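Re: the request from the purification team.
They wanted to know what the chain is likely to look like in 3D before they choose a buffer screen. I agreed to run a prediction and write the result into the notebook, where they can find it.
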Amino acid sequence: MFPDHDVRVPLYLPFVCLFIYLFVLLVPLFPLPDFLKPLVELQEAPHSASCPLPGESPPVPQRASRFAQWAISLTFDLRSHSCSLKVSKDGLTVTVSHCPQTHLWSHERFVTCQALCSQAFYSGRQYWEVDTQRCSHWAVGVASWGMKRTQILGRTSDSCCIEWKGTGQLSAWHMVEETVLGSDRPMVVGIWLDLEEGKLAFYSVANQEKLIYECPVPGSSPLHPAVWLYGLNPGNSLTIRPVNA
């Protein structure tokens, strides 16, 4: 049974429906009022947790290093680096310069594009990382302060390194001998110097820690972190990066 009373429709309801219809139909044809723009922008703004856009790579998660407790702070030494190199103000980046730097000549300066860090290690365990992504041909390792300034890192009995050649070859140099390691280029190199056990190890640590090469500590301590850069490519640079704790 239907109710015996009348259902009355408000007289203005048809006009409301017509207004909504015309609003939806005509609004896209006219500029949006300023007071409504923040609401639209808020709705259209991408959420921070949204999926990457097409063509974008997802961010690489920063993983903690198992060597973090032995991480050390380093800076490049201003006395030893070649005149073809310049050191950043924070001392963490060394770059091949377009023009020779106007440093005073010193017998402590390397002839080639090499540099030592100021810190020297006599004992204990140390760990640091070097970002190599902006260098086409490089070497990272350790050397004694007494290494001859005309010699190349790894080609002496008191230095050791791994070297990436621009031709696509990764090698290790220890006691003047080269060991070819393969063709995978490490974008970030972790160096583990264990003077208690007399071991030196190199890791690829950009995405995960992978051992590249291990050898006895060269020569006698103290040892300095050391780098070499290919000098014919101005702009090539190596950076000491913070270790993720």
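For the purification team: The chain has two helices and 13 strands.
Please add any questions underneath this entry.
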